[in-house]
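Ticket #4471: structure export looks truncated?
Reporter: QA, pipeline team
Priority: medium

Steps to reproduce: submit the single chain below to the structure queue and open the exported record.
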Amino acid sequence: MSRHEDVHKGMWVEPPFSGLSASAKLLYLWSFTNSHCNMAGLYKIGVEPMQRETGLTPRAVDLALSELTEAKLLYYVEHVLWVRSRVKYLRNKSPNIAKSIAANLDHIDEDHPMRLGFLDKYGSVEWLRGALS
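Actual output as written to the record:
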């Protein structure tokens, strides 16, 4: 069964999203609505599924990833993608969601820069703290 994702409607007119190229906007929307994404917004994925599922060329994906990294919307390092604000925009911030996020992190190497970045950003968030420690 597929899961529905919330999309912050105001993002279309707010920087930095509003200033992105069409390819970067597409890849960003794909990054948190695809079947690989999880509650943490931190998951392993290769570039090939990004190309296949968005219809973007390899060059367009590379350029979009660079643009999104510069905009600090997402990061892609060593086959791990982190949608930086995924957790921020979760509608439900319950203990069960916190457990799910902690389980998502278990799939990423402890010393991976994306996992470390995630913990730096969200490790002290009150509703997540117990699950992430």
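Status: closed, not a bug. The export was complete when the record was re-opened. Leaving a note from the reviewer for reference: Residues 9-132 form a domain with the Arc Repressor Mutant, subunit A fold (CATH 1.10.10.10).
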